[in-house]
Amino acid sequence: MRSKNQSPINTKIIILGLFFLLLLSVIAWSSSSSFIAENDDASDSAAAACPSLPSPPTCTKTPPSLANALVHYVTTNVTPQQTLKEISVSSRVLEKKSPCNFLIFGLGHDSLIVNQADELIESGMEDDCKVVGDPRISRCQLALKGFPDNIYDTEWDLIMVDAPTGYHDEAPGRMNAIYTAGLMSRNRKNGETDVFVHDVDRAIEDKFSKFFLCEGYLTEQEGRLRHFVIPSHRTGSGKPFCP
């Protein structure tokens, strides 16, 4: 008798619970739909207020100098990079002088004059190439004059000459870069400049670094890297081009 009297009550409780669950689900679904609609409206408004900008044009052409260098590096078994010991030479100086101004002659190109190296050495013996001054007004054939003004106006504490390319006879070589690095170093108001030349195992870099940066200023050589310390020539009148 007790179970029969409680059965209708239990059924009503279950039905009432299901009704509340259904009601909560409807309320939750309505709130979610409203939130999504508001977000969509906000996104549409934002898109209308901030239309998408056209994508910038992309450069699809590779400079010939870079293309030639890439072809060389991917087809050779020897990658002409500095060894850890060679890097350590400039790293020690950089750590000692930092913060400082460090100029690097990296990947680039000069006029194709490697096969004129002997003639340029002879021209470097002329008086115009031994005049200490701004490379922009130098009358020496070896001076590089096409850089932005801030390159010439800065007093460089370190200069690394590791380019342009010089691995074949038609490559530009580093004669102009070596000479200009030496001229910049001598032309600073005071102090001294550490100049590094890489790949001195090659005839051009060997000959030009000794001639224009001077063996008397050579302080260290590690592998294919030479380290020169060149003082200012503006502070001492009558100082010779090489000691």
From TrEMBL:
The keyword Signal applies. Its main location: Golgi. Pfam families: IRX15_IRX15L_GXM (PF21729). GO terms for cellular component: Golgi membrane. It comes from the Eukaryota. Keywords: Membrane, Signal, Transmembrane, Transmembrane helix. It is a single-pass membrane protein. It is found in: Golgi apparatus membrane. One of its GO terms (biological process) is xylan biosynthetic process. This is Polysaccharide biosynthesis domain-containing protein. It comes from Salix viminalis (Common osier).
